Amino acid sequence: MNVKSTFENASFKDFENIPGMGIFERAKELNAFLLYLKENNRHHYRKINYDMSGPMVRHIGPDGKEKELLNLVSNDYLGFSQHPAVKKAAIDSIQQYGTGAGSSPLIGGHYDYHEELERKLCHFFGRPEGCSLVFTTGYTANSATLQALLQKEDIAIMDMAVHASVYEGCLLTNTKRFLHNNLEMLEMALKDAQFKYRNKLVIIDGIYSQDGDMAHVREILQLCRQYGALLMLDDAHGIGVIGANGRGVLEHLDLLQEIDIITGTLSKSFGNIGGFVISSPEMIAFLQYQSRQYAFSAAATPAISGVVKALELFDEEPIWRHRLRENIEYFKKGLTDMGLDVGNTCSAIIPVKIGDPHKTGQVGKMLLEFGIYANPILYPAVSKKDARIRMSLMATHNCEQLGKALEAFEFINKKLELAN
Ligand SMILES: Cc1ncc(COP(=O)(O)O)c(C=O)c1O
């Protein structure tokens, strides 16, 4: 295959595997594609940020001049990565323990600050001690857990919009995908799998990362019980944003104690890095010893103690969650009033669905000219006809900043006729 001839319509997915091509040759091809994107002003990735992760960020523009941009790309939803008390907790822990844990948890890298965090996470989700396990990323919380649990005799049945980490975790087992939030398809898959596999694990997100919409958890749980399947839910984008006390989608639906395995990340509403699993104490002990990425990789650094403080702030300072909710309602209303399609979002992820990938790239560029940093999301992150601008809101954005983004959309909408 001559990839070069199709650069115009190519995506990163085309370079995953090119038949007959060596790995360095394939890397060369990808580099040629990157150059093509840069030369055609279509390269939106790995922009260097010169400032803290706040509502405004500083970048160097194509003219080589520094530019302040409104930050609509951060998942630091509550702004906790910048909260003085969260930073102090992380700094104090580094002062006491240093910058690294030194080894993996099973062989000397497990500290009292990890224990404290795991205890607090159990408490946060209303579970007894021993029900949580901390991983070094949200990605591994999913991939490592799934890899440890599912083998050739089992099947993972997942919503096709789940995160890449779920797909990676299921590489060694059987898989079946169902269309996003489609209960009929899920039921068909469950029926089909009913007597064929040892374990059936249904995997969904609480809030989906590209659409910001919520899973039909109650109905899915009912189907799982009907067909003898287990349910795993990743609430990376729901925790901190959804639920009266910020416990996420499961608090909102009053199902916190009903799900077999809950996963989440510490990199979004907790303002740090890491991930966690909540399950029964037996399952947590199983993962401690059977998850290779947990057992054979260094434990989280002492800076993770910032999360302990963030967990306390969920209850001590609900104001951040309330501000975020006000921002979500204000921004969503502004966009829908213009006739723009934000889909079914109910979270801090706000997509503006455009469809056409070229138009979406154009919108991304125009927003940058207005001083607004928002990501165009293209295939393969979404299907080819479902390109969109994806934005994330933070509690620390103010009305003036979001108003500026709405004005930019108003102008672009008139110019490019985005509204249906
Ligand atoms: C739904 C979902 N799960 C897991 C992850 C991975 O989390 P992390 O970036 O903390 O590794 C992400 C990351 O964006 C996500 O969107």
Quick overview:
This protein has 420 residues and is α/β, with parallel strands linked by helices. 39% of the residues lie in helices and 15% in strands.
Question: How would you describe this protein?
Answer:
This protein has helices spanning about 25-40, 85-95, 110-125, 140-150, 165-170, 185-195, 215-225, 250, 280-290, 290-295, 305-315, 320-335, 355-370, 400-415, and strands spanning about 55-60, 65-70, 130-135, 155-160, 175-180, 200-205, 230-235, 260-265, 275-280, 350-355, 370-375, 375, 385-390. The chain has two domains: about 45-75 and about 320-415, Alpha-Beta Complex (Aspartate Aminotransferase, domain 1); about 85-315, 3-Layer(aba) Sandwich (Aspartate Aminotransferase, domain 2), CATH 3.40.640.10. The model has no long low-confidence stretch (mean pLDDT about 95). Strands 3-9-8-7-6-4-5 form a seven-stranded mixed beta sheet, sandwiched between helices. About 40% of the residues lie in helices and about 15% in strands. A hairpin with a 5-residue loop joins β1 and β2. It contains 14 helices and 13 strands. With about 425 residues, the chain is of the alpha/beta class. The structure holds pyridoxal-5'-phosphate.
Q: Which superfamily, in CATH terms, is the homologous superfamily of the largest domain?
A: Type I PLP-dependent aspartate aminotransferase-like (Major domain)
Q: What portion of residues is helical? A: 25-40%
Classified by CATH, the class of the largest domain is Alpha Beta
In sequence order, what are the helices and strands, one letter per element? HEEHHEHEHEHEHEHEEHHHHEHEEEH
The CATH architecture name of the largest domain reads 3-Layer(aba) Sandwich
